[in-house]
Amino acid sequence: MHVENKVAIITGGASGLGKDLAERLVSKGAKVIIGDVSVKAGEAFAAELNATKDAKVAHFVRCDVTDFEQIDSLFTAAEEHFGGIDIMVNNAGIAEYGCMLLSNAAFGVQTGNWPRLIAINLTAVIEGTRHAIETMRKQGRGGVVVNTSSIAGLVPNPAWNTPVYTAAKFGVCGFTRSFKGNEKREGADQGIRVNCVAPAPADTPIMDAVRETVKNFAMVSVEMVTDAFMMVIEDESLSGDIARITPEEGIVIMGGEHF
């Protein structure tokens, strides 16, 4: 898919991986709907992107992805401002630190609130994908969904002490792989692809809660993860595929032999 003049929704789009991807897409001529819970950061970022172009290329929508009505509002905004969607990036996520059976510093006073982690990191991915496919079917012009997983969703690491996060990210990988060949189906699904990126830790704000846990592990650059996002968006041969990103091997598309 050539992204010029295409419209993308990015959840968790005001910081970290989502923000870098939004910048890359706009630089290549796309338009973006930025969904995020941080209103101040999201509005400022949308204004910054719009200032770089002669026409409006970004719009911010306050979105808590645990609220399905707020996910719906992303699609409404995409239709109203840019005439529909072509790319859906389910990127919003939170991290976990400490075994769920003991304590969980990432949640503060909500110690052990593992259902919220599942709601953000897995359930919202499923709903975002469902809504995107439904919308793309109606539009009839194909499209691509990209889900953000993690290396933890491919190779569990007990040293990270993140069992629920790992479970959610395994779920994202399995969910994505279930769409292998979806774009070749007869009828409304033709041309609709679903892919996934699974990066090793990258230096983004989500790492703040788990930085101590992963401090001895090599990180990947945000730029490399964005390269992987663009690969699974632009390469129309990729469908139901996972792009694994590690410091040692760079970007690797996971084939059947990897599973």
UniProtKB/TrEMBL annotation:
GO cellular component, one term: cytoplasm
The UniProt record lists the keyword Transcription regulation: no
Keywords: Oxidoreductase
GO MF terms held by the record: oxidoreductase activity, acting on the CH-OH group of donors, NAD or NADP as acceptor
Family as reported in the entry's similarity comment: Belongs to the short-chain dehydrogenases/reductases (SDR) family.
Name used for this protein in its record: Uncharacterized protein
Organism: Podila verticillata NRRL 6337
